[in-house]
């Protein structure tokens, strides 16, 4: 049984435009493959710990800075447990609204918690960073109220799809498909544009191998 981890980055629940796209995709995905398991992670309801001094110190031991004492090990074990839910999934679905040109801070917090050496990436002084995930897929749904690709700079800049695309590649997720509903507000036909985006989301579904 394949597991899809749905990471909801919007706090708006059923009003979220990116969430509607993700839900349309998941409904289509489960209609084709009823055995797929969907694990839903609402970042706004999750108990995400601060990436504090002990966790940062534990991380740095992997780069040869300091030692993994009992306090740091306890902090690291918490990170490992949170990350396991992510690494055990076969596919990632992310609903990501644009916030101030970037991603919502809860998603950034989650990324900062799980993106750790030996868990999601490796490092070699000569060859640099390398992603550790293999065979994973991602479907990412981007929305923005005013910004649109190619729009004049006065309507904003895109640091959320560029950052998230970089991060997925960084950890080894290279099979990524995206759907954009941008803009969702500054458009002559919001309802029509939304429906077309929903259709694109549904059409990302593939027949299971």
TrEMBL record:
Domain Flavodoxin-like fold: 2-201
One Pfam family named in its UniProt record: Flavodoxin_2
Keywords, alphabetical: Flavoprotein, FMN, NAD, Oxidoreductase
Reactions it catalyzes: 2 a quinone + NADH + H(+) = 2 a 1,4-benzosemiquinone + NAD(+); N,N-dimethyl-1,4-phenylenediamine + anthranilate + 2 NAD(+) = 2-(4-dimethylaminophenyl)diazenylbenzoate + 2 NADH + 2 H(+)
Cofactor stoichiometry and binding remark: Binds 1 FMN per subunit.
Keyword Zinc found: no
Domain of life per record: Bacteria
The keyword Protease is annotated on this UniProt entry: no
InterPro entries assigned to the protein according to its UniProt record, in alphabetical order: Flavodoxin_fold, Flavoprotein-like_sf, FMN-dep_NADH:Q_OxRdtase_AzoR1, NADH:quinone_OxRdtase_FMN_depd
The enzyme's E.C. designation: 1.6.5.-, 1.7.1.17
Family the entry assigns: Belongs to the azoreductase type 1 family.
UniProt subunit comment: Homodimer.
Entry function: Also exhibits azoreductase activity. Catalyzes the reductive cleavage of the azo bond in aromatic azo compounds to the corresponding amines.
Protein name: FMN dependent NADH:quinone oxidoreductase
Species assigned in the record: Donghicola mangrovi
Gene name tied to this protein: azoR
């Amino acid at each position: 049984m394949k597991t899809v981890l749905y990471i909801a980055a919007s706090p708006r629940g059923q009003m979220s435009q990116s969430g509607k796209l993700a839900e349309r995709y998941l409904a289509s995905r489960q209609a084709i493959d009823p055995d797929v398991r969907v694990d839903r992670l609402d970042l706004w309801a999750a108990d995400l710990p601060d990436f504090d001094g002990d966790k940062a110190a534990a991380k740095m031991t992997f780069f040869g800075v300091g030692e993994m004492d009992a306090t740091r090990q306890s902090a690291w074990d918490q990170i490992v447990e949170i990350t396991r839910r992510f690494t055990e999934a076969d596919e990632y679905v992310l609903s990501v609204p644009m916030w101030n040109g970037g991603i919502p801070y809860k998603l950034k917090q989650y990324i900062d918690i799980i993106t750790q050496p030996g868990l999601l990436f490796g490092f070699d002084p000569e060859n640099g960073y390398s992603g550790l995930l293999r065979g994973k897929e991602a479907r990412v749904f981007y929305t923005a109220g005013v910004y649109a690709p190619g729009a004049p700079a006065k309507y904003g800049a895109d640091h959320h799809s560029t950052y998230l695309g970089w991060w997925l590649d960084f950890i080894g997720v290279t099979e990524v498909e995206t759907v954009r509903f941008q803009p969702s507000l500054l458009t002559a036909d919001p309802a029509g544009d939304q429906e077309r985006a929903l259709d694109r989301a549904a059409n990302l579904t593939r027949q299971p191998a």
